[in-house]
Amino acid sequence: MIPLSAFTVFLGCVSALAAPASQPVTSLSDALVSKVKTNMKQIATHSWEIGTALEALTEFEWPSLSVFGGSLPPPVKLHSGEAADVIQWATQIVKAKDPNALPLIDGDGAVGDPASIGTAVLLTNWTRTDRSDHEFSTAAGHQLKYLLDVAPRTSDGAISHRADQVQLWADFVYMAPPFIAYYGALKGGSGGLSLLKIAYKQCKLYRQYLRDSSGLWQHIVLGIGQDHNHWATGNAWAAAGMLRVLEAIHHSKLASQMKNEQTDLKSWINEIVSASWNHQHSNGTLYNYIDQSTSFADSSSTALLASVTYRMATLTSDNSHIPAANKAYNLIKSSVDSNGWLRNTVDPETFNTPSKPGEHSPEGQAFVILLQSAYRDYHQALASRK
Ligand SMILES: *[C@@H]1O[C@H](CO)[C@@H](O)[C@H](O)[C@H]1NC(C)=O
Ligand SMILES: *[C@@H]1O[C@H](CO)[C@@H](O)[C@H](O)[C@H]1NC(C)=O
C-alpha cells in the first residue's frame, strides 16, 4: 500500500502539471445553468439586456457561431434548428422595428445599447434561407449608419453613449464596437477593414477618456451626470467588449493586416483584468466600486470579469489570472440559488445600490451564462493541449 502522505504528494504534482490553474473548481450543473438561462430570457427587456442575452445564448449554445468559435464570416447555411432561438428573437425585434427610426429598438436615450442586438441581426441576415429578403441587412445597415453618421461625438471622434449630449460610458464598449467589428468581419475587403479599424479606434478613444492612473476605468465622463467611480460592471463591460472586438479581428480574413491593433487590445484588456483582480476579496468577489472599501460585494461584475479572464487565458495560454477566475467562479456557483437566480447583484439601473430583495439583474443572469461558456471553452482548450 502507498502511504497516504506519499499519495497526496503524488496527486499534488500531477494536478500542478495538468492544471497550472490552482484550486479545484467543479462546474455548475447543466440543470442549474438551464434555469439561469430561462430566467435570463424571461427578464431581459431593455435593449442592452436583450443584446447581452443574445450574445450569451450564442456563446453558450452555438459556440461555433460566436466570435470565439471559428472563422468569420460564419457559414451561410445552418443545420436545421441551429441558432433557432437567437434568430427568432432577432427576427421578432426587426419585425417590430419602427421603419422610420435608424436604431434597431428603443434605447432609453442610449446610442450604444440598441446596437448590441445588431450582431444577432447580422447573423440572421447572413444565414437566412430566403436570400431575396433584405430586411435584416437593411435594419443592420441603418443601425450602423446611426452610430457612424448621426450620433453625437467628441471632437476627436468618440461616439457618444447618449443621444441628447456627448457623454462616454464604459458600458458603450460592449454595446457598439463588437457590432461594428462583426459587421466588418462579415463584409470583408477594404470596407470591412475600415469597419474593424473603427471598432478598434472607438475602444482606443474610450480608454483614453475613461482609464486613469489606477489602470481601472471610470464609469461615465463628460456632460451632465458623470460617475468617476471605478464601477466594476463598467470595467467588465469594457474588457468584455474589447475582447469581442479582438476576437472578431482575430477570426476575420483581415487578421494579418491588424496585428498591432490585436496586440493593443490584448494589453488593454489585461490592464483591466489585472487592476480589477488586485482588489478581489478573499471569497472571490469584486466590490461594486472596485477599489472602495465602503462599497458592497457585486456578483454580476465578478461573473463577467471572470468570463473575460478564462477567455483571455484560452487565447493567450497565459494562466496567471486563472486562480482569480477560479475563486470568482466558485463565488458565482455559491451565489446562484436553486431556482437559477444570481444573488448579490448590483441594481443595474442605479449602479450604486444592491438589487432590492426579490429583484434580479437581467444582465447578471446573462453574465453567468457568458461565464459558463468561457469556463467550458477554457477547459476544452486545456484538455486538447495535453
Ligand atoms: C446580408 O447577407 C448578404 C448575403 O446574403 C450579404 O451580401 C450582405 O452584405 C449582408 N448584409 C450585411 C449588412 O451584412
Ligand atoms: C464576500 O465577502 C464580502 C466581504 O469582503 C462580503 O461582503 C460578501 O457578502 C461575501 N459574499 C458572499 C457570497 O459570501
UniProtKB/TrEMBL annotation:
GO biological process terms on file: carbohydrate metabolic process
- One Pfam match: Glyco_hydro_88
Task: Identify the keywords attached in UniProt to this record, alphabetized.
Answer: Hydrolase, Signal
Range of residues in the leader sequence:
1-18
**What's an example of a GO molecular-function annotation for this chain?**
hydrolase activity
Q: Which residues form a coiled coil?
A: none
What SUPFAM superfamilies does the record point to? Six-hairpin glycosidases
This chain belongs to the protein called Six-hairpin glycosidase
**What organism, scientifically named, is this protein from?**
Trametes cubensis
